[in-house]
Amino acid sequence: MNSLPLLSICIPTYNRAGFLRECLSSINPEELYDKVEVVVSDNASTDDTLAVLKAFQSTHPLRYIVQSENLGPDRNFDAVVAEARGEYCWLLGSDDVVQPGGVRSLVAALTSCHTDIVQFGYVQGDLHLRPQYRAAPPAGPVQTSPHGFASHLAAQPNMSLLFTFISAYAFRRSVWMDRQHLIRSWVGSYYIQMFAMHSALASGATTLAALDECLVIARGGNPNDFNTVPGRFMALDARTMSRLIREVHGDQADFWLAISQPFRRSYPAKSLFHVAANGGLGYINEARETLLRFGYSKALLRGLELLHRLKLLGAIKVLLDSRRRILNIFNSIGSLT
What we know:
This protein is an alpha/beta fold. 47% of the residues lie in helices and 17% in strands. Strands 1, 2, 3, 4, 5, 6, 7, 8, 9 and 10 form a ten-stranded mixed sheet that branches. Mean pLDDT is 92; it is low at 333-337. Residues 8-158 form the Glycosyltransferase 2-like domain. This is Glycosyltransferase. It comes from Comamonas aquatica.
């Protein structure tokens, strides 16, 4: 009898004791049985993370490792997968929470689909996990031929479902471990998990199934080095997607076209105006070549430059802020009626 778990819920964390407590509390021990373990890699936290982990060991099949120094996010992702014992791994963000029944649904999908990767949806929440919107991939088995995989990527509602959001898929552990020689080259990208999944699927031998069920709530509005600086996240995504297409997908035109579609859904033209109006024009210029390849018009990018030179971006910012305040007032009135 195989004593190893089917699934390892792998949680990388750093200085998120309060959020981690919510995350672990959302994992129902009754759904774990002997098929699921929880593994946490603490990236040398200086808060109460260790106390939280010790408390949950009495209620969950939980193992944890504590890094002697902060490895950065990519190496911490690699460390927690390496520590796992399950046939499959689910990298779960320590500030996200599992929907009721989410673990049970994932175990059922892994058991029935027999694929190497299972992708699913999520509910985007605010900082307090209040639902904002739902995002999920089209359900069904996915053809992982270049054309089939490109078509699947093009259909995703946003960038998060290009395997950038760690909490929205589970994968056979061997998919990751078989690519250890490549993983080192992706450290520092902030998207080591995406490179690993795309590299496996680009080989044509890895299988993928998608569920349109939302198994997690993603916490939004959690400040970090990228989302607090206008345009920095967009520039990172543009730079990383360009590298992904060139290095993993052989610079194929199908993948430029496919990935451009969820990219533009995540960063519509109006968001570029917002970035530029809030001081992020430099990041737009940094990403210029990729933005053009993704179908943004030269007129749009030139227009932002012209508005900057004419010192009109500040006026646009005032208009955008005023519109936002008016919408907030109407939303507040609507919530009272």
